């Protein structure tokens, strides 16, 4: 197969960058391929957002998968039945955002360029990249792009792993393949203190007894980092930091991990006032399986539930598993935190680009988000246009 670009990852970043390479860089569709093991593009995004019961995105109307920042706004005006926008910043309804994504995928016929397979290994050369797939096939391209998320590395507390091993009904909302239906039992414990935990509690509380167990007091933030990180206000100073360890410290400080947007918090507070949700600010000190459920010890009390849902986030180590570990073993440069050291075009190697979490030491704290995909494209697509095949 003769390809110009091979994109590994069919999530938000992979789809957006594929569309931009075709639209802006002039890459011919038939010379681009997206490799992702899910049955359809954006499948993991759709599954995770459905699990939480998300109604409106946290991001603003201008953050989506089309090149024109106002494309989603116009799409919403033509499709008002899909839910419209919510304040602040005209945040789109999830159904509207997903339909807009479908329109972008259909316009560029990206589903035709999706290989349902998993990349197992990547070899780099002076003239291109070669990826070995789980199916055994090897595919070559002039350039590769790693658009990998963190969604396969969920955090499981030790007590939760032991509880699962004992046969309890416990799952992480973002584990691969997990689909949470509405047929949940009457007593649920949600473990976590951020937006996902709050969304799960909001989704399942009506008609059930829901306990939300957080290690910290609720922290309200509209976004998961300040808006200044989307533009020069903060990024100019970030770019002047030469030491990658210092950049990592700045990223860690800038992120509002475990925070809840005000609208989600208001709904949760109302459910707490009405007695549908009980918020516990404590850690789980003991967990055991009973004949008729699960007993959790939190602080100085115990609660009995039928099911535990984890909203404890993702591991902080770099994504990509053995695929990326192999590249590091081959000598591609990393900072002390284990994340790639890339150039201003997001090249980790003359033939390999990165986006998403792997690019955050260059892009900054919002690298993982939808706006991070747009920021990555502003660096990658001009370079791709200048170096496209004739």
User: What structural class do the secondary elements suggest?
Assistant: alpha/beta
Total number of domains:
2
* Number of E-type strands: 19
CATH topology-level fold name of the largest domain = FAD/NAD(P)-binding domain
CATH H level of the largest domain: which superfamily?
FAD/NAD(P)-binding domain
Note poorly predicted spans: none
Instruction: Estimate what percentage of residues fall within beta strands.
Output: 15-25%
Which term fits the overall shape? Answer: globular
What's the CATH class of the largest domain, please?
Alpha Beta
CATH-level-2 architecture of the largest domain? 3-Layer(bba) Sandwich
Span of the ends, CA to CA: 17 Å
Main sheet characteristics: 6 strands, mixed
What do these coordinates show?
With 390 residues, the chain is of the alpha/beta class. It folds into 2 domains: 5-152 and 316-386, FAD/NAD(P)-binding domain (3-Layer(bba) Sandwich), CATH 3.50.50; 158-216 and 258-310, FAD/NAD(P)-binding domain (3-Layer(bba) Sandwich), CATH 3.50.50.60. 32% of the residues lie in helices and 22% in strands. It has helices spanning 12-23, 43-52, 71-78, 94-107, 158-165, 195-204, 232-239, 244-254, 262-273, 321-329, 360-363, 370-386; strands at 5-8, 32-36, 85-86, 91-92, 114-116, 119-125, 128-133, 138-141, 143-146, 170-172, 187-191, 209-214, 277-281, 284-290, 293-298, 301-305, 307-310, 347-349, 352-354. Strands 5-2-1-9-19-18 form a 6-stranded mixed beta sheet, with helices on one face. The protein has a 5-stranded parallel beta sheet with strand order 10-17-11-12-13, with helices on both faces. A hairpin with a 4-residue loop joins strand 7 (128-133) and strand 8. Helix 1 (12-23) runs parallel beside helix 12 (370-386) and helix 6 crosses helix 9 (262-273). The two termini are 17 Å apart. The model has no long low-confidence stretch (mean pLDDT 96).
